[in-house]
Specification:
The complex is a heterotrimer of chains A (176), B (690) and C (120). Chain A is 8% helix and 41% strand. Chain A has 176 residues and is mainly beta. Chain A starts with a helix and ends in an 11-residue tail after the last helix. Chain B has 690 residues and is α+β, with helices and mostly antiparallel strands.
């Protein structure tokens, strides 16, 4: 994805633009976003698009954090609420609530899933030596989702592994 | 430079399979003296052999070579065409198919049939005349005598008309220069007086000195195409001698020019062809199979036309939109109508691209019947109708095996032995008819035989024996015949190796259902049976009934719907522990409230005031309770698996006119959900009870 | 640019020969049998013709004879693509006016190396 082109696009309904983002291309770039009061980041190369929240079509008997599917230019894309999945913050849908659509390729098969977050914040440049491993205890996000932590000023940003985020748990039939 | 040809393997495979089919069908109709047919069979084998060699499919090449040799003898009239040879050739077609398939999959082919048929072919070939079956010796593996430079002295005396076959001495010399350093001495002694000179003839000859590491064969190969049209003398010379001849030659050719052609670096000219063909073999292993489709130019042209019309409509509409006022409303309406029309036609055209005549699936049956006749000793005629009926490629690929099973079944169980037929006053030869036609949005394939028909009583007795039905159940004919598709049911008195392996009809039915189709049987004792397979024309589009439950819209495949009705409270019963049943004529149909199965809020949860859509899956009728019936429309099926995963009760999703997504219901899956829940509840009750 | 006509009834062989020639910078046109090839040859000039022997409608030998009757093709190199390496086939080709032959299995490097003997 061409992030410059994305930033230049006039924000339309369903999309949000980056403003005042610094495009320095040393090291890896991460798109950072907010869940509750915390900041997270994902590899920017996986970001397909950023959309505003719209009500999806429900998937029968899916877990609560799977909100349903939407039509993204003819492709059926599932929407997962990361706040619910990781039990962070409150689940409400406001004007800043956005969906970050992430695409990964695995064995020549593309997988596109949208993730609901509270807001998109910035693009982060992080060198490999700046990424610190996360402590193995404490948080409620399972360890395998986390690639590492990066310090930015006084904040800590958790880098998430997109490949892992996209791995779905097998469907359980929920009883009534 | 090396050219990678592996991208052509899929088209070679496709072409080869087509060639094999052609060989097969031609062999079945081959009669003595039919030269054109033999030629086309020969050509098919020839092409397979040629292509296989290119990709290093050596087993295919070797085997096909034997077949080709046999066909060549037939083609030249050296061999009489007899039934026995045709049988061997038919067997060979199967073998080549097996060999190509294993070459494609990169696995060795271990079928013993190959060795057997190959031996048979060799034997047949040797029986008539002795022609060595392999006249193609592998390219000799030259070791390029390392740095041993040899001084070659070549005399090249072309015949006068050499250039008339398109050969050009200069290019031959260039080729020599690729081998090493070349010094040329042209000799114009034979040049006639101008008055006798013919513009199209060559009067020069050359002495060539070549310093190279090459062998004599390498030089000969360059002159391969002209060897009959020239005198070519090649011999080795020592370095000293070489210098001496150079001296005398230059004296002898005062009138001619002396060119020294710079050679390219030896390393560039060196790689021997043999070693390279080995490399090729290792790269030519395709694992991925990309389906391709051959589309008639007319279909593509019609698409282009339609897109053209769409563009016109679009530009008309955008012009209209740029300064629109209400006076132009009529124009807008008609423009939108046109757009609808264009889109519809475009959709139909695109779908048509995937459509192939069903003859692709029917083609294999003449051979099958031929083999079955031989095996069963019954004389059977095959009648094929409607082979131009078109069907989606994917459906076609998947319906092949079920059809084969049904035809085998008809030949094995349907058609009676000759004595029985004669005794019943029927012609000795049985007939199996394959027919295909369109009916509504579906294709119907009929497999009928004029055999003994299904013995209703025998089926029933067997079903009771197996505990599939209650001893005193009263069943309609259709219900009895449906028992044939029950798992494990087989009516053959003895298990034959043709169709009665105990598995079969249930698998056939499952495969057909997996394609969204149905199978029905009609039969009359003593007259024969007809199996009717009803399939959707395509897997990509489905005729659906839109229904609403709470805020959600679902799509029920039209083919599954028996009827839709407003519930009459007096027909609602509760039985066997709060199971809701609805009386539909003599059936008790279990009611499945969609909102409960899917855990949704619904407008109405009272069965007595609801709408029921009665659907059928695998013979089981259920009533789906919904809030509202909306439109019926065709929907394009999209997979949920691509970005998500398989969801029970849902076969896929589609995008509706307003851009929203709607789930397509999978009736069988919904029944499964209900069953699992019921079982879990029963277990819980048992737990509580114990 | 050197222009080559490829005549073969097998799609895959034709595609491969075309592909090989194009990747070496030659311009190509193709025909699926001798008759089509002859018509294409009548319509435009070629620097080389590569043809299969066994084809429906018109075989390679006949094509060769017919081409040699055309003034434009009197000296044009014609190569026969054949699996039959027997001397008999070569003689028949030569008699029909063929320049040379290429023995299948088709090997792209060999093809490029050998056609240098007949085209510039």
């Amino acid at each position: 994805m061409n992030i410059q082109a994305l930033a230049q696009e006039i924000p339309e309904q369903g999309e949000q633009a980056f403003e005042g983002i610094d495009f320095i291309t040393d090291g890896e770039q991460y798109l950072t976003f907010i869940l509750g009061k915390e900041q997270y980041g994902v590899d920017i190369l996986c970001v397909e698009e950023i959309r505003s929240w719209e009500k999806p079509t429900r998937i029968p008997n899916s877990p609560d954090y799977v909100k349903g599917v939407i039509n993204m230019r003819g492709i059926i894309v599932p929407i997962i609420d990361l706040r619910q999945k990781f039990s962070i913050g409150k689940t409400y849908y406001a004007a800043t609530t956005v969906v970050i659509v992430l695409t990964t390729e695995h064995e020549l098969k593309k997988r596109t899933i949208g993730f609901v977050v509270d807001a998109v914040s910035d693009v982060l440049n992080a060198e490999e030596n700046e990424i610190k491993p996360a402590p193995a205890f404490g948080g409620c996000i399972p360890q395998h989702y986390i690639d590492g932590l990066v310090n930015v000023d006084e904040n800590v940003i958790t880098l998430l592994n997109v490949q892992e985020l996209q791995t779905l748990e097998p469907h359980q039939l929920l009883s009534q | 430079m090396s050219v990678d040809l592996s991208q052509f393997i899929p088209s070679f495979l496709e072409e080869s399979f087509e060639g094999l089919e052609l060989m097969e069908s031609s062999l079945l109709t081959l009669e003595a003296g039919d030269n054109e047919t033999i030629h086309s069979i020969f050509r098919a084998a020839h092409s397979i052999k040629g292509g296989a060699g290119t990709f290093g499919f050596n087993e295919v090449t070797e085997f096909t070579h034997l077949v080709e040799t046999l066909l060549d003898e037939m083609r030249d009239g050296r061999r009489e065409i007899n039934q026995q040879d045709i049988e061997i050739l038919l067997e060979s077609v199967d073998c080549i198919r097996l060999l190509i398939e294993s070459a494609r999959d990169g696995e060795p082919c271990e079928d013993e049939k190959i060795a057997k048929t190959s031996a048979l072919l060799t034997e047949t070939l040797n029986a008539t005349k002795t022609e060595s079956p392999s006249d193609e010796s592998p390219v000799s593996t030259e070791d390029n005598g390392a740095e041993n430079l040899t001084y070659w002295k070549i005399q090249f005396l072309p015949e006068h008309q050499l250039v008339q076959t398109g050969n050009d001495p200069l290019l031959l010399f260039n080729a020599l220069a690729d081998l090493g350093e070349v010094t040329l001495h042209a000799n114009a002694d034979e040049l006639p007086p101008l008055t006798e000179m013919h513009a199209e003839e060559l009067y020069l000859n050359w002495h060539i000195d070549l310093v190279s590491t090459c062998s004599e064969d390498d030089i000969k190969e360059i002159f391969e195409w002209v060897e009959d049209e020239c005198e070519l003398i090649i011999h080795k010379a020592s370095p000293q001698k070489q210098e001496a001849t150079e001296h005398t030659a230059s004296v002898a050719s005062k009138l001619t020019s002396t060119d020294t052609l710079q050679s390219k670096t030896p390393s560039q000219a060196q790689p021997a062809p043999a070693s390279r063909s080995n490399d090729k073999k290792s790269t030519a292993k395709p694992k991925t199979e990309v389906g391709s489709i051959r589309v008639g130019v007319d279909k593509v042209d019609s698409l282009i036309n339609l897109v053209g019309e769409l563009v016109i409509t679009q530009s008309m509409l955008s012009e209209l939109g740029s300064d629109f006022d209400m006076t132009k409303l009529d124009k807008l309406t008609s423009g939108l109508e046109q757009l609808l029309q264009n889109t519809k036609e475009l959709q139909e055209s695109v779908m048509r691209i995937r459509m192939l005549p069903i003859s692709f699936a029917f083609n294999r049956f003449p051979r099958l019947i031929h083999d079955l006749s031989k095996k069963t000793g019954k004389s059977i005629e095959l009648v094929i109708k409607g082979e131009q009926t078109e069907l989606d490629k994917t459906v076609m690929e998947q319906i092949g095996d079920p059809l084969v099973h049904l035809v085998r079944n008809a030949a094995d169980h349907g058609i009676e032995p000759a004595e029985t037929r004669l005794a019943a006053g029927k012609p000795e030869q049985g007939t199996i008819t394959l027919d295909a036609y369109h009916q509504g949005g579906n294709i119907v394939i009929e497999i009928s035989d004029d055999g003994g028909g299904i013995n209703r009583q025998a089926v029933l007795t067997k079903a009771i024996e197996k505990g599939i039905v209650e001893p005193n159940a009263s069943l309609s004919d259709a219900q009895v015949f449906d028992l044939l598709f029950e798992p494990g049911f087989s009516t053959a008195k003895e298990v034959s190796d043709i169709s009665g392996r105990g598995v079969g009809m249930d698998v056939v039915k499952r495969n057909i259902q997996a394609l969204g189709g149905r199978i029905q049987v009609e039969s009359e004792q003593g007259k024969g049976s007809t199996f009717k397979v009803n399939l959707p024309l395509t897997l990509a589009i489905l005729d659906g009934q839109l229904v609403r439950v709470g805020e959600e819209v679902y799509i029920i495949p039209l083919i599954a719907i028996v009827e839709s009705l407003q519930v009459e409270p007096k027909l609602v019963n509760r039985a066997s522990g709060d199971m809701v049943l609805y009386r539909l004529r003599e059936d008790n149909v279990p009611v499945l409230p969609v909102y409960q199965l899917f855990n949704l809020p619904a407008d109405n949860t009272n069965i007595n005031e609801s709408l029921l859509v009665v659907v059928e899956a695998d013979g089981q009728k259920v009533g789906l309770m919904v809030d509202d019936l909306l439109a019926q429309q065709q929907v394009v099926i999209k997979s949920l698996k691509d970005n998500y995963q398989q969801v029970e009760g849902v076969s896929g999703a589609t995008i509706l006119g307003d851009g929203s997504v709607a789930m397509i219901l999978d009736i069988q899956g919904m029944i499964n959900i209900a069953l699992q829940r019921a079982q879990r509840e029963q277990r819980n009750i048992e737990k509580v009870a114990s | 640019m050197t222009k080559i006509l490829v005549v073969d009834d097998s799609n895959s062989i034709r595609d491969m020969v075309n592909f090989t020639l194009k990747s070496a910078g030659y311009q190509t046109d193709d025909a699926k049998d001798g008759l089509e090839g002859l018509n294409k040859a009548k319509a435009s000039a070629f620097d080389l013709v590569i043809t299969d022997v066994n084809m429906p409608n018109m075989d390679g030998i006949t094509l060769c004879q017919e081409l040699r009757k055309l003034p434009n093709f009197r000296f044009t190199p014609i190569l026969m693509l054949t699996t039959e390496s027997s001397g008999d086939m070569k003689m028949r080709g030569k008699a029909a006016g063929a320049t040379g032959w290429l023995v299948k299995p088709f090997n792209p490097d060999k093809l490029l190396a050998t056609i240098k003997r007949v085209v510039r």
